[in-house]
Amino acid sequence: MATSLTDADKRKQISVRGVAPLEGVDDIKEAFNRHLHFTLVKDRNVATSDDFYSALAHTVKDNMVGRWIRTQQYYYEKDPKRVYYLSLEFYMGRTLTNTMVNLGIQEQCDEAMYQLGLNIEELEEQEEDAGLGNGGLGRLAACFLDSMATLGLAAYGYGIRYEYGIFNQRIHDGWQTEEPDDWLRNGCVWERARPEYAVAVHFFGSVQNENGDWQKPSKWRNTQAVIALPYDTPTPGYGNNVVNTMRLWSARATRGFNLNLFNTGDYIQSVFDRNIAENISKVLYPNDNFFEGKELRLKQEYFVVCATLQDIVRRYKSSKFGCRDSVRTQFDQFHEKVAIQLNDTHPALAIPELIRLLVDVEGVAFDQAFEITKKTCAYTNHTVLPEALERWPVKMLENMLPRHLQIIYLINARHLKDVAKAFPNDSSKLREMSLIEEDGEKRVNMAYLAIVCSHAVNGVAAIHSQIIIDDTFKNFYEMSCRLGETNKWQNKTNGITPRRWLLLCNPSLSQAITDKIGDDWHLDLTKLRQLEEFASDKSFIRQIAQIKQENKERLASWLSQSQGIKIDSKAMFDIHVKRIHEYKRQLLNALHMVHLYNEIKNNPDGDFTPRVIMVGGKAAPGYHTAKKIIKLINSIADIVNNDPIIGDRLKIVYINNYRVSTAEKVVLLFCFSLLLFEKVTPACDLSEQISTAGTEASGTGNMKFMLNGALTIGTLDGANVEMSEELGGKNIFIFGMKVEDVEAMDKKGYNPQDFYNGSPNLRRALDQIRAGLFSPKQPDLFSGFVDDLLKWDRFKVCADFDAYVTCQEEVSQLYKDEDEWTRQCIMNVAAAGKFSSDRTIHDYATEIWGCEPSPGQRIPGPSDAHPGTEE
Ligand SMILES: *Cc1c(COP(=O)(O)O)cnc(C)c1O
């Protein structure tokens, strides 16, 4: 049974390493009351939970600003190399708890709220998620900010302050519908507008070249300007007093925007039209691993890049190193002071933009500008799916960014000379490797642009980095080898921050670990290896099993509140949460559900391991197949969950948003998927990581579950491969085709029909779905879907079905042996150390950015802080 300790009680027992209380409980209470009174203009009688949340958030923020100012002053004094992480997404989630954890003031805040008669967990639940991301790529950027600050790097995250983040998903009659995510409705405590650093961003217009020479400093005229207004959010390191900055840009119309209309007298219309400019930062495009090619998206990509590079160059010039006293700033050492990391090609326009600034504004010669840019920039590839690779039509660039298109052509000319040098007598390479694709509508291949102008290119897991050089960018890799570019092609296996993904989301497991091995693991996750020693210790096994059980009970009670579905918390929690995408194969899981259903129905008295299969995730609004998969899973759930023969042996839950009215307001339970991840991760027994081999670049969901002591069922894809290696090939359920098998099958010609004919279980499941067993009101709802699958099955669901089912049977067998299962869970936690984003960032810093991390080294605290310049 659950103990009577609340999360808050347990957290009180967790001591944060080496950080002395910075403010006493009384100070926190006083600051809290002051904010309630002066900032929120409320008293205790009329304050809402939201007011209490805000008062606490302000109080916690107060504890951070001294460190923030100090850190930025420190960077100004020391002038270390700056690292700029450019990303169209930062999936930050909630900030309050994370800030308390990193500042080491969680205990004091818990105690202060307790003394004030408030429940801190309830206040924490009031915070809106900052959902400025789609999935793994955006969450990675957020984990990196945590690790960069924790490692003491002078780093900045640069992105867009979307007014609407990732949509809220609701399920109506089994179908996904989308609602706008108005996350700024009640304001955001953590951000600070910085109008003094606003810059202009130009679009459209035309170019005037000197003597028609594109390489000469040129003028870009008759443009339409938009103002980029920065909002800064502090990103604290863990226990080291470092507070870095995430700067997100918001679009504002210029004063003179649409002056034409204004002059013709239509004042009202000219005010309305300011929206056109301000729409740039209105909404996050909700695609994960998919390129949509919309003009507004291109505007967003240029907007963030242009504003950010102006900021970077301004900071460089105003630094001590930037030779403020010489007439002209020296740029030949720019790359020794600035590293720019491109999170996928989304911000790849940073390349022509930096060259443009250097040539047209700073008067640097084109060839030198190219070399500086290349030494400064590095590119991370995140996917090999062709539909996700950005290829912008030349026409669109010519219209919106005419000077940048010229620069891209200049880069291409240089590049093609190098291609000819590397591949003499092979003219086919010129066509294959041109940055400009000529077949069909002319397009710029943004990955090729990023590769050619970066000194480092990396994949995000060992297998993915190998696929990139063997396949996706083979020509470019070969060219690097021939031209002697060593160390350009790298791997940086993704990671997750152990603060949010263990310390914060699973306090009881954290405490149990610390009781055994101390708390060094907070900053060196490889220390978890020491747990192996206790993996067979009966009392430790009991303790870990108990913690998992409590976490499951907590999730079960959430689910019964939010979905109205009663589940048995003793059953295996089999969890598959991530974006809905064909390559991630939620469909394979769905077919397994149908299979289990059939097995129980055929043998009602059989001995089955009870399972609750939970699936959750959002489909891109325009991705019809993904939406149909959601409907299919909900349809299967409807039949299975209401079949009395099945009972508690199989329950299927599609985790979705649900509105609950409390006394105060309507609350969305589980409406945000980052939150969903945080709630679900500690309670998972079995983690589903079943993408087709060769399609998932890395995955990070897999790591979160492993770190929290779930067992994984997965293919040898992405980081699963390295997880299996860390586990010595044991204590993980690997099944299905490997990359080589998939390739061989494609070569031979894949026919899903063969597997349908060869597998009675698969045939039965597909026939049932096709015939409408799970959609009785609309019997042909899924028939076209099944027919298409049997024709194409791009992601080889049919080919892997039998292996998956067999592997799941082994899972069910093992779950019956609770102690052995738990022992293997402990072995998973013990082997998860590699997957800390601290390790990932350490490797980026030393192998790509050329700067030295200083983990564990604290900078001066806030006590002697005094107000100064921001930078
Ligand atoms: C970690 C995370 C992901 C990535 O999950 P994968 O299984 O790697 O696709 C997606 N969304 C959210 C909210 C996450 O926290």
From TrEMBL:
<keyword id="KW-0663">Pyridoxal phosphate</keyword>
<keyword id="KW-0021">Allosteric enzyme</keyword>
<dbReference type="InterPro" id="IPR000811">
    <property type="entry name" value="Glyco_trans_35"/>
</dbReference>
<dbReference type="InterPro" id="IPR011833">
    <property type="entry name" value="Glycg_phsphrylas"/>
</dbReference>
<feature type="region of interest" description="Disordered">
    <location>
        <begin position="851"/>
        <end position="871"/>
    </location>
</feature>
<keyword id="KW-0321">Glycogen metabolism</keyword>
<comment type="function">
    <text>Allosteric enzyme that catalyzes the rate-limiting step in glycogen catabolism, the phosphorolytic cleavage of glycogen to produce glucose-1-phosphate, and plays a central role in maintaining cellular and organismal glucose homeostasis.</text>
</comment>
<dbReference type="GO" id="GO:0008184">
    <property type="term" value="F:glycogen phosphorylase activity"/>
</dbReference>
<keyword id="KW-0808">Transferase</keyword>
<dbReference type="Pfam" id="PF00343">
    <property type="entry name" value="Phosphorylase"/>
</dbReference>
<dbReference type="InterPro" id="IPR035090">
    <property type="entry name" value="Pyridoxal_P_attach_site"/>
</dbReference>
<keyword id="KW-0119">Carbohydrate metabolism</keyword>
<feature type="modified residue" description="N6-(pyridoxal phosphate)lysine">
    <location>
        <position position="704"/>
    </location>
</feature>
<comment type="similarity">
    <text>Belongs to the glycogen phosphorylase family.</text>
</comment>
<dbReference type="GO" id="GO:0005737">
    <property type="term" value="C:cytoplasm"/>
</dbReference>
<dbReference type="GO" id="GO:0030170">
    <property type="term" value="F:pyridoxal phosphate binding"/>
</dbReference>
<keyword id="KW-0597">Phosphoprotein</keyword>
<protein>
    <recommendedName>
        <fullName>Alpha-1,4 glucan phosphorylase</fullName>
        <ecNumber>2.4.1.1</ecNumber>
    </recommendedName>
</protein>
<dbReference type="GO" id="GO:0005980">
    <property type="term" value="P:glycogen catabolic process"/>
</dbReference>
<keyword id="KW-0328">Glycosyltransferase</keyword>
